Amino acid sequence: MISEKEFLEQYDPGKYPRPSVTADVAAFMVRSSESGDYKKDSEQRLTLLLVRRGGHPFKDCWALPGGFLQPGETVESCAVREIREETNVAPVSLMPVGVFSEPGRDPRGWIISNCYACVISEDSVRQVGGDDAADAQWFEVDFDRGEDGLYLLDLTWQDVSLRAVLREEKTAFGTGFFHIEESGGLAFDHARMIAAALTALRENARRIDLIFDFLPETFTLSQLQRVQETVMNISLLPANFRRKISDYVEETDSYTSGAGHRPAKLYRKKQTEKGEEA
Amino acid sequence: MISEKEFLEQYDPGKYPRPSVTADVAAFMVRSSESGDYKKDSEQRLTLLLVRRGGHPFKDCWALPGGFLQPGETVESCAVREIREETNVAPVSLMPVGVFSEPGRDPRGWIISNCYACVISEDSVRQVGGDDAADAQWFEVDFDRGEDGLYLLDLTWQDVSLRAVLREEKTAFGTGFFHIEESGGLAFDHARMIAAALTALRENARRIDLIFDFLPETFTLSQLQRVQETVMNISLLPANFRRKISDYVEETDSYTSGAGHRPAKLYRKKQTEKGEEA
DNA sequence: CAAATAGTGTCTCTAAGACAATATCAC
DNA sequence: GTGATATTGTCTTAGAGACACTATTTG
């Protein structure tokens, strides 16, 4: 019979085999692309940050930013660190997507990956200025359901196009879970992670709180609506959208100007209100 | 410049420090306790499986069942294995609760825990027969919100009563995240895990699919209603509940009998219907 | 003025909650 | 019959969707 103190002094974690642990992050941004017509508002696209792998394995393939967990940090702080290294932006909220631990998912050996999703505003990325390193780029995202529970994931940046095919797994539970039919050239099992992250993002985008993170401090209600439409890939009527979010925003004194139409009042996110309680 | 094959041959995962990884499971069951009155239906209580720790650290404390991840298995299969070792029952669905990786959370060192919740029917536990090992018991659960975002967690089995106090963390995102004010004698940071698991369980119990796992193959609608009420700690009107779930169940030819009141038709879960699509 | 977005009012439809009323068993 | 649950029907209300209409800007 030994005491707890003695036990801990003798304890050797190296007795049992241990995996390596990583955090990978699907960082999303809504990018507005200018249109030719001065009257029309710009269109918006959902984009995802990918990095080109500089070393083996999957050298030169595109992958989610991520890295190994270091002693003394949590998985979440590791995820934040990785995103900041790539974008210079610290993500506001981090959404857990899932744990990926299938044997063989990484050719280097026993490696478990914790996947997170986060949302970054175009505004903040512009402020810190992209360093134009060709190894990190925002890809436009298309993710649609095909036939027979097949899903098509399209990631496009300039002339690079990654097309993955996934099959949805029946998962008695609500979390999206996918099998890779075609990786589309993405490294590791990242196509699965991206599909799961997109599913989680869309699922949670109806909770209004999330979509504010895509926008700067102040915004018009139309901008807010377009963000939700872009993320969830749906279409809404302005009148109804305004009603729905009216409790979550408050007016400012500013207006937009310069567009070829009626100016819009700028709003900001209302603090300490609804959605916090209950 | 080396090839990927050469790289993998040279790769040594031991170069970087690695954590130990565990899976811990919050297994819930709804237990019906017989009442004295022949006319009244039995009352139901939500219970949680805890095991008494036989060795250091936290010797003799109660803890969630769990164990170290072994090579060649996924985190999920590890969780299933642990539950089966304690109950002889293989849980149907596994719900991810969160990853707990705060430095110092385990006195043995760098140990990351993946927490899952699952739901087990009283029926299946009865069938395999509890082995009456005193080291694994179903505790009755009370989890209520106090003042100032403080939560009280009460776990009771016979004369053992564990009372933990937790504080909810503001987490820009929807997942419950708690700080331990008082552990109530629970091992490690398991009080946090249990609070997070209960939050997740209640959140998802409104998705009807989940609550079927608490019940045997066939059941009455009242039983189903009581399960949802027990899990979510709410009260519903029978008429409305029946309407809401009517699309998810189908009748059988059997009826209950023997109770001091009108017999109820037995239902079963309807397959390949609503909730699967969309 | 034309084109486009900003913003308001209102009708309808559906789902949830409340509640009343009837049915049927064991004792 | 009594007391309990089983089961059905209907009224009310809250919220989402649809749509018509007005307001205001730039060129």
What can you tell me about this protein's structure?
The structure is a homodimer of 278-residue chains. With 278 residues, chain A is an alpha+beta fold. The first copy, chain A, has two domains: 20-205, Nucleoside Triphosphate Pyrophosphohydrolase (Alpha-Beta Complex), CATH 3.90.79; 209-269, Arc Repressor Mutant, subunit A, CATH 1.10.10. The first copy, chain A, has helices at residues 4-10, 75-87, 122-128, 190-205, 221-232, 238-245; strands spanning 20-33, 43-52, 62-63, 66-68, 94-100, 111-120, 136-145, 150-157, 160-168, 178-182, 218-220, 249-255, 265-269. In chain A, strands 1, 2, 3, 4, 5, 6, 7, 8, 9 and 10 form a ten-stranded mixed β-sheet that branches. In chain A, a hairpin with a 2-residue loop joins strand 8 (150-157) and strand 9 (160-168). The radius of gyration of chain A is 21 Å and the shape is globular. Chain A starts with a helix and ends in a 9-residue tail after the last strand. Chains A and B meet through helix 1, strand 5 and strand 6 of A and helix 1, strand 5 and strand 6 of B. The first copy, chain A, binds a DNA duplex (27 and 27 nucleotides) through residues 37-41, 220-222, 236-240, 242-244, 257-265.
Keywords:
homodimer, 278 residues, alpha+beta, Nucleoside Triphosphate Pyrophosphohydrolase, three-stranded antiparallel beta sheet, 6 helices, 13 strands, 33% strand, DNA-binding
Explain the layout of strands and helices.
2 copies of one chain form a homodimer.
Chain A (H helix, E strand, L loop, with lengths): L3 H7 L9 E14 L9 E10 L9 E2 L2 E3 L6 H13 L6 E7 L10 E10 L1 H7 L7 E10 L4 E8 L2 E9 L9 E5 L7 H16 L12 E3 H12 L5 H8 L3 E7 L9 E5 L9
The first copy, chain A, binds a DNA duplex (27 and 27 nucleotides) through helix 6.
